[in-house]
């Protein structure tokens, strides 16, 4: 009798265990509701297009050296020759890197006498990022260095091509001893320069056109814009928990008591902060921060047009500052110090974004009210450069740009000469003037 009771009790326990297992496997209403609710906050409305690193790194100038101290300069988008040369070079391979002192070679003699093409990036680009754009051998001792120029040339009377990568600190060059380039390749690149404007340089640093430049037009570009509500939904984990602070004459603020969002300049500029991101730490890899910055923009607003990576700085605070310069029709947009426009800038620490600045305007592809304009060249341009920098030591680059003037529904883009100072600051040197009819 006792044995039968034990058997019955054991049978009952087994049945209860099976029933409990069934409910555990198929009935979790509270957990499912909580997970779905959290995921609904993570999903954000896609806004602009995404972008890849490869499209954000490109030379700001191609300087062609044609021998007999003759030169010309190609800028992105200003002529199809730029794209032809760059595309061809991206298909070549560069191997067998050997480091040498910069002063071991007479670069003035080479630029005056030899045929060559010089790719100028403007700002330091780590080898690891440059390898995403060019086929560069990564298995060498100094691959953690940064590069700001590539110079490819061939000497008269010698059937060889030499390729050098210039260290951004100005101390070394790296020669690719096994680059699959021929003398015919270099001659072909340089040949494109025969059809372009002549440029002159006194020191090999700043090249200026011998004559005025008339190819860039002043134009009016209509725009659409992201709304504050779109950016609120996109940047806050739970938009329903944010508070709005309105000022009739000033910016619009959003906050969830942790993160902050400021909409300024009549709804055209965004400034976002996330103080929960780390503010210090030893593990702050610049490559990781650049990739994190690109991914953050991809997910939070996207890219409103073409951009170029122009700044990767780690100040004393330990935070990385990443800036992307906006281009329109392959020409950079440079605003005055009184207006924010023409760039995105992010501050990161250990791959996490603590601040995010960007325009909310999306420029259209169609333009109206086009007018011919002229940028000075030759002696007048050289005098302007000397007035700004009498010593010749503070200006490191000269390039054409667009100055924006924002209206209610459109932006007027006017051609200007811009310069970049050794500090990294970009300023407008002079504006264009109407083309005088002969």
From TrEMBL:
Coiled coil, from the record:
none
Q: Which residues form the Regulatory protein YycH domain?
A: 4-421
Would you say which domain of life the source belongs to? Bacteria
* Gene3D superfamilies xrefs: YycH protein, domain 2
Quote the InterPro entries the UniProt record gives. YycH, YycH/YycI_2
Q: What is this protein called?
A: Transcriptional regulator
